[in-house]
Amino acid sequence: MAPDQKSTGVFIDARVLVVGSLVAAVGVAVLAFFLWMVPNAAARESQAACAGLVSQPPLNPALCPSGNCKYPIPAPDFTAYDHNGKPVKLSDFRGKVVLLNFWASWCGVCKTEKPHLEEMAAELGSSDFVVVALASDRDWADVLVAIVDALSPATPVPDGKIDLAKALDLYAHGVPKGTSFQVLLDKPAGDENIGQIAASWGIKAVPESALIDRQGNIRHYFVNKRDWQTPVAETCLRSVIDE
Q1: Structural contact between residues 96 and 75, judged by C-beta atoms closer than 8 angstroms
Q2: Residue ranges per domain, the chain?
Q3: What CA–CA distance (Å, rounded) separates 208 from 229?
Q4: pTM of the full predicted structure?
Q5: Beta-carbon count within 10 A of 217 CB
């Protein structure tokens, strides 16, 4: 460079560098805080949804023999039977999230819950999530008629006792595509109304439901019916399904 030429180099004030670094650091901190907040906010939303949907009852002795248990707790295994007489164990669903719904054909409240249960099962049912309806009934005819009565109210149901053949015909016409939830039979003992499996869980009235995770643990317990179609219900269910 000639002595009389002026320098054309670029000079940056050190103060600008400091301010720029501080701004960048603040930006990184805000981004990190946002990324930390998103999953935590989602977790809080799920907890709030489940809290709004569930009133966790005190654990009965059947589910908590020690009397000092907290959710999650292991779901007692059982064997029930499908409409073909095939034995099905609760543990057969291990690896899936299960909503286990205890109900009965003679339960009027169960009838009002079934349409919501069906629509939710149709929407959320997948290889990761299954709804199992365990019926406290003595025979399949009563179960099939009750399902038709709940899901297809426009289908005329004859009065009085219906045999299995007529019940199957009624079901084929009233619910031609079947249900989105799996139905199993839980026969009561003696003159009891509650099925033997439900009774072994300490259940004295239906409907009740248990949300069971992939490891076979009860995460939430629902006494009485729920509107399973609500956003709150979906958020609560997905909080376990999406884990």
Answers
A1: no
A2: 12-53, 57-241
A3: 17
A4: 0.80
A5: 15
**Contacts of residue 230, Cβ cutoff 8 Å, sequence gap at least 6:** 53
Could you say which DSSP state residue 229 is in? T
Q: Which CATH superfamily is domain 57-241 in?
A: Glutaredoxin (3.40.30.10)
- In a 13 Å sphere around the CA of 107, the CA atoms on its Cβ side amount to 26
172-203: pLDDT as tens digits:
999 999 999 999 999 999 999 999 999 999 99
Sheet holding 87-89, edge to edge: 73-74, 217-223, 208-212, 97-103, 129-135, 182-185, 79-81, 87-89
Peptide bond into 231 cis (omega under 30): no
Q: Tell me the C-alpha distance between 158 and 167, whole Å.
A: 10
Q: How far apart are CA 53 and CA 237, in angstroms?
A: 10
